[in-house]
Design brief:
alpha+beta; YojJ-like (1; 2 domains; 13 helices; 58% helix
């Protein structure tokens, strides 16, 4: 008991408020890093590194000299390999940390009116693309500059309009197969080539357009609207995640949130550490209030059954795909 008492006396001697703050800060940083790792494809790699460290410790404990020598060599080389393998995740983490804002910037009334016109043009174009089954891939630039992506296409630097978007994605247009990069209220580039996602857990029904839309959101903070050429289904990609079977009204609200929000102190750095649910709820309610109030005279009337039609169409598509697979199996067996 005397030894235990002496141990605690040594540990807690001189333990003050600064030490408590230091421990809490380190714990928060470790928690944030772990959360970031387990939200990305780095999770499996991290588990492999952890197993290697455990094997190294056990081989040293049980005097397995050859195995220990191999593990130590792997750990030494792994320090460099981790930087290479984790390069996309490390880059994105540093970008997220660097997006912090010191000064709050408010959207003026004149800018709000311009933003409404932009939202109207994009929403109407997306609605038309979905109805006519015109494939579209629209990328909205945020804090991460997409200059390298824009250079793969044709620089336009043109004002956004429903007619221009329709011409760019028209099947006979030389730029219709690529992505359109929108910077603020300007169509900056068209016909751009996006990086494809490397995820293996995606549905095989998703084509190159959807995989490119997800891929750019994995490497940046961009927002992407995707319209399927085969089905006309509207999808939205953000932070490496894909939402499908959306209607034009939902796209309008997403774009309102994108264009109308104010940047508070800390900016996007707050999203890296996780925005509180109450803040997200308040922001969502505010967006819905603006979209559903008298300020939404710029929106067109949306059919009430539009979302139901999209869902029914998706179910029919799934059934037809299953029927085709059954026919192929019967032919192969024959």
């Amino acid at each position: 008991m005397q030894e235990v008492r002496e141990f605690f006396d040594i540990v807690f001697t001189g333990f003050g408020l600064t030490d408590v703050f230091d421990i809490l800060l380190v714990s928060f940083v470790v928690y944030t890093l772990m959360k970031f790792i387990f939200e990305t494809r780095a999770e499996q790699i991290f588990k492999g590194v952890l197993i290697l460290v455990v094997v190294t410790f056990l081989s040293d404990l049980f005097n397995l000299h050859t195995l220990n020598w191999m593990c130590k060599g792997a750990v030494t080389l792994g320090a460099v390999a981790i930087l290479i393998v984790f390069q996309p995740e490390l880059r994105r983490a540093l970008e997220l940390m660097g997006r912090g804002r010191i000064v709050k910037s408010r959207v003026t009334q004149a800018e709000k009116e311009e933003n409404k016109e932009v939202v109207k043009a994009i929403a109407n174009a997306v609605r038309t693309f979905s109805r006519e089954k015109t494939g579209a891939l629209i990328v909205f630039e945020r804090d991460t500059v997409l200059e390298d992506i824009s250079e793969t296409g044709t620089i336009l630097d043109a004002k956004i309009s429903e007619q221009l978007l329709g011409n760019l994605f028209y099947e006979g247009s030389p730029l219709h197969d690529g992505a359109v990069i929108i910077c603020g209220r300007t169509i900056y580039a068209a016909g751009c080539v996006l990086p494809l996602t490397k995820r293996q857990d995606l549905s095989k029904s998703l084509g190159t357009r959807h995989r490119a839309g997800i891929g750019i959101t994995e490497n940046s903070d961009a927002l992407v609207i995707i319209v399927s050429e085969e089905t006309g289904i509207i999808s939205l990609a953000e932070d490496g995640k894909l939402e499908r079977f959306l209607d034009a009204k939902t796209i309008e609200k997403k774009l309102l949130d994108f264009y109308m929000k104010e940047r508070d102190i800390g900016g996007r750095l707050s999203s890296f550490f996780g925005m509180s649910k109450s803040s997200q709820k308040n922001k969502k309610n505010e967006t819905e209030r603006v979209a559903d109030s008298g300020e939404d005279e710029y929106t067109d009337t949306v059919p009430k059954q539009e979302s139901e039609i999209n869902e029914a169409f998706a179910e029919d598509l799934t059934e037809s795909a299953n029927a085709e697979e059954e026919i192929k199996e019967k032919e192969s067996n024959a």
